[in-house]
Records
---
Amino acid sequence: MIYCAPCLLGVEGLAAEELREMGGENVRAENGRVLFEGGQELLARANLNCRYPERIGILLGEFRAESFEELFQNVKALPWEDFLGKEDAFPVSGSSLNSRLHSVPDCQAIIKKAVVERLKGKYRLSWFPEEGPLHRIRFRILKDQASITIDTSGEGLHKRGYRPASMAAPMKETLAAALVKLMRLRPDGAFFDPFCGSGTLLIEAASLAMNIAPGRNRGFVAESWAEAEPDVWRRERERAKELERRDAGFHGTGYDIDPRAVELTLENAKRAGVSGAVRAAVRDIRDFQEEGAFGCVACNPPYGQRLLDQQAAGELYRVMGRVFQPKRGWSYGVITPEEEFERIFGRSADKRRKLYNGMIRCQFYQYYRWK
């Protein structure tokens, strides 16, 4: 089976790496997604353990579609009866970019009609109640190349289940996990976030350090399908539990000037099962100090497009440049869309990486060298 894992732009390589480690075959990273092959075990394992993709889908087909007729005929030719029962629900959603078929609602309607026509011929039915298990059909049309998948995740994989509430402008869990990975956090590392908000970076850092499966506390839509193998999902959950490293020695510390953020961070850490490794306190960035012989700092500070005006954001970056001093054993990472960040911060980054925080194009600036 060929699977498709859509990703935030910039994290495809990380997603491909983890899927290879999980046993995925023929893994290949592409723009905004990763394709890989495997069986039912890998499908369950990927949904439970993937930190960086947005969801896992079954790739039914790819073809060129420059007209609605091409789209209809190619979708109709796919083996829908192998995946959809007579009563299954199969809503259609998707996107189109830089393509002749640019109307998403029209594409949805054409794809839905094509699937219905295929199933009519196979099941000898004229109407489908769609009251059974959900099989959401997703399409992507990019430069006239269409990809058709069936979603196996349900809610996006960033929905870990520990953050029912959050502060303003929260970062997706998948992006937070990617930032932590890029910082090369050690399992026994000391991690700091001086703008902790709802604690997402801290919790993702703790989960990575202790190898806690991000999907362990949630369900997935593929588990409800008639063809699902409950024993496979049970074994994969047990396997994920056995691979946890609760004694890794990780310590995470968060600071925020808002007492509500500190309280929410601690609540979410408890909900995520990592409260023993995470602490938080009210503290201004001006009072930040390195604590200990080594540490890793990653943060998503408020900026002009999110919470602060440009002048206030600039002052914040200048403060960060003063308190984030090069020191042996310490590394710093800052994600921001501010193109003049390095100039305002006062130092050129040792490494930068283009990423997207939602729809906002950002750079992740990393500092880890010292003289």
---
Amino acid sequence: MNDQLYLLTHGIPAVIAGIMLALTLVGVTGSIWGIKRGLDGGERILRITAAILSLVGIGIAGYVVVTVEIMNQIPQCVGGGGGCAAVEHSSYSRIGGIHVSIFGLIGYSMLLISSFLKGDRARIGAFFLALFGFGFSLYLTYLEFWEILAVCQWCVSSAITMTMLFVVNTSRLIVFFGTDDEGDAFVPAEDPDPAAV
């Protein structure tokens, strides 16, 4: 456990920890605000929050994809340290020959698309995408702290972003499932008046 505490306290510089805290505040604040607003625009707030977090995730995963797959380099850890290189050189950085950041880029892109969609199908889809991403992020974070014994700041930032997406999309599903979307409510066609024909 001492190794994990050391990684946590020394593997993440203050600047990155501040960014991670800001991402957490965006997710938590957006969720609380959306829930409190309820049917008076609350889901829109949650969808905007999810879109912002998804764009951050696309930026993180996109940087790693470009750096590793296109430039054939190791992602740079802010403030130095060799955590990013150690994680990148581990056997866990690829699944079936595909770099994990590519899966992240696909997942964040799908979550971004789901943040623009309305209705219960979009809510359910976004929830399960975020749930899968959250579980996958937990697994990768476990590997960093307990198997690789190195912290990649990009990976941990992505894990926090995905965790906040899970919180936001869970709030969206629980609070707004079964509610009509503004302007999307089903209005049945009126039966023609037989006397008017």
---
Amino acid sequence: MPLLLSAGCSTLRGPRAVAPEAVDPVHPAHATGWVDTRLYFGLGPADRPGEGVSDAAWRDFLDREVTPRFPDGLSVLDVYGQWRDAGAATPERLRSRLLVIDYPDTAANRARIEAIRTAWKKRTGDRSVLRVTVPAEVSF
């Protein structure tokens, strides 16, 4: 059976494509040189919700320390975490927040991430904020 090809016989209808130059530069259609950073913040013992950092204190930290440094967008997830200190027999179970920020990998942005970590440790007395950064293929 012969294969028949016909060009231009069908029309796709749907959202009109936006010219690349019309896309918001903060939210590129496709970007290279970006990274995905995840920061893990311990809020307090999982089995004692009244102890540790309150939801209001977390929001204050987010408003004062994080959002001004990355105003274009981020994600916050409630997570459960475990941490075992050196020499401890069992892990400490923590209420936690996971902060996800995708951004162009620049020295200035890396410094902003470190400033957030430093601010949290100063505010809470925690010794660490876990940071995981990986390359990211970004498209909006």
---
Amino acid sequence: MTFTSAEEKRVYTLNLFARIASRYEFINQVMSLGQVKSWRRAAAEEACVPPGGWVLDVATGEGGLARALLRRWPGVNVVGVDFSREMLTMGRAHSVGWPIRWTEGDALRIPFPDDSFDAAVNAFMLRNVTDVQVTLAEQVRVVRPGGRVVCLEMTWPRHPLFRPLFHVYFGGIVPVLGWILTGHLDAYRYLPRSVQVFLPPEGLAATMEAVGLRQVRYQFLTMGTVTLHVGVK
């Protein structure tokens, strides 16, 4: 999918998540072959939230990463922000009994003051925003000095043998699965295309450094299909 403007992409993604919200977590589990929970655990581990600290889950969706944070760091304060009301509705429904604070808001204009959180995390959202650098800069803004920004993203693997297999699965099978399970073929065609055109891991690391993060590092997960980036303010 090619967008002619940032606003066109924003509207498209907003409508996309509204349409797939009710099946979002189930599809994630199917597409990742059950690996998405382990990826979230890895991201939660890297947040390093101090006792009683505050962490912001940007584009929280249905709250999978927010719950992973609470499992890893019991007693911390987790705030989930998302621009999709439908996703927030599913998040609340799937997180009954979990002390998550839910907020509707745009990742490009996070509705919190400077230095409000000990960490900010995001999972599989940066490729969907209209400006990656502004989105990261906003997360840096709301994190206290010494706090972390953690980014979890899909990556097109580089291994010469695994890459073509992943292309068949992610580029061919996943859209069909998404269509069968949700009825929205275009949404799951968009997914692999968005990964293909997104920044490579070293490019995302450079962008994190450009917005003021230091000690930026990244690691590949699950044969290079997912990358976990971490930076310190």
